[in-house]
Design a protein that fits this description.
Layout: E1 4-7, H1 12-21, E2 24-25, E3 29-31, E4 49-51, E5 55-59, E6 72-76, E7 85-89, E8 92-93, E9 100-109, E10 114-122, E11 128-137, E12 144-153, E13 159-167, E14 189-197, E15 200-207, E16 213-222, E17 226-232, E18 236-244, E19 249-259, H2 260-263, H3 267-277, H4 283-301, H5 309-325, H6 353-365
Antiparallel strand pairs: 1-9, 2-3, 3-4, 5-6, 7-8, 7-13, 9-10, 10-11, 11-12, 12-19, 13-18, 14-15, 15-16, 16-19, 17-18
Length: 366
């Protein structure tokens, strides 16, 4: 039991914390632990996807500016949202804040490198089903963020509809009461390209000042007969899968993120090529690659403690999040919040990499 953390929280107080705790990353790409289907309108959430060191340049405002104060800074940006998948059960939207939640548990597995949600839900009209959401950010293919959704009807359900979106109209989170994210520079990306190519969805964004670009190429697949449609707008693409409800359904969404800093001017073409190369793969294939990487990591990095399961769990959690946060490509580092959120705008505080490793490890070992 010391290889995972578990939460059953559905309240606003624990939501933002769990979004950070259950975030996934690989040093290049980070995704917050958001619910694919979204939340009720009154809940505050930070829906975020980040690439280490991908930034725009913003002005710094001072109450009193003195000599040699810097005039600009770099700001980590929230990127194209490929997390969203809405589910409709005979026309009713699946939501953990409507109907009846008969069971709910989410887990972050340090040994497998995945986050998982297991849900037993009854809709407002009494339709009952079990759902499992699994996701990973790959350590083998750094550009990959994959989601698998399994739906198992329990009661009589006629139709299940899945609505998957890739949305380039995104902003950074702003909270004037939190100095870590109080800057008003929220909207820093414009959508410069949207394409739908043979069930591949491609969105490209560009920053306002630094002129960096980011691309997301997304491909989806489902294991049952279905009706399919897609709609493209100026800012993104929506796909709709309509299936018969009296059967288990498995849905896979694989998203590949590329950026100017690592992939150059042909970043969109590179993301598309990754989509094509991985199109025949299942979530199990991605999970196998993830397991192989982490088996090797834990063989070298694990520290075992006898007699205190809480301390053992906490230590492995820290090691796993450090692995997820550490940039290792020559253009990135370990930000103050890693790749779990926008706190401190992604800044490293000028700490060199060797010192940063000591900073994370020493408090654990004392």
């Amino acid at each position: 039991m010391t290889w995972k953390i578990t939460s059953n929280k559905l309240d606003q107080a624990g939501l933002l914390v769990d979004e950070s705790l259950f975030s996934l990353g690989n040093g290049y790409l980070g995704v917050r632990g958001n619910f694919e289907e979204g939340y009720q309108a009154s809940y505050k959430s930070i829906r975020g996807t980040y690439i280490n060191a991908f930034h725009d340049i913003t002005d710094i405002t001072y109450g009193e500016k003195l000599f040699a104060f810097p005039e600009t800074q770099q700001k980590l940006l929230n990127l194209i949202d490929a997390q969203s998948v809405e589910i409709f059960i005979d026309g009713e939207p699946f939501s953990l804040f409507e109907g009846e939640v008969l069971a709910f548990e989410r887990q972050l597995h340090f040994d497998k490198g995945i986050a998982e949600r297991n849900i037993h839900w009854k809709s407002p009209s009494g339709k009952e089903l079990r759902l499992t959401f699994r996701r990973l950010v790959s350590f083998k293919t750094k550009e990959l963020f994959a989601i698998e959704i399994s739906i198992d009807p329990i009661s009589d359900i006629e139709e299940v509809k899945l609505v998957s979106t890739v949305n380039g109209d995104v902003s950074n989170f702003v909270d004037n009461n939190d100095p870590r994210v109080a800057s008003g520079h929220a909207k820093r990306l414009s959508v410069v390209d949207v394409k739908h190519l043979d069930r591949m969805n491609v969105v490209v964004n560009k920053t306002y000042v630094s002129e960096l670009k980011v691309a997301c190429a997304s491909t989806t697949q489902i294991d049952v007969d279905h009706l399919y449609s897609s709609t493209a707008s100026q800012t993104g693409i929506t796909e709709v899968y309509t299936c018969k409800g009296k059967q288990p359904i498995c849905f896979l969404k694989a998203n590949f993120y590329t950026d100017t800093l690592r992939h150059g001017s042909r970043l969109a073409e590179y993301a598309i090529s990754l989509c094509k190369e991985n199109r025949s793969k299942t979530f199990h294939d991605y999970l196998y690659d993830q397991q192989m990487y982490l088996d090797d990591f834990w063989k070298k990095a694990d520290i075992t403690i006898k007699g205190d399961d809480d301390l053992q769990e906490g230590l492995r959690f820290n090691l796993f999040h450090l692995l997820q946060s550490a940039g290792r490509d020559g253009v990135s580092n370990i930000a103050a919040k890693g790749l779990s959120g926008e706190g401190y705008e992604g800044h490293y505080f000028g700490i060199q990499r060797s010192i940063c490793f000591r900073y994370f490890y020493l408090p654990i070992l004392k």
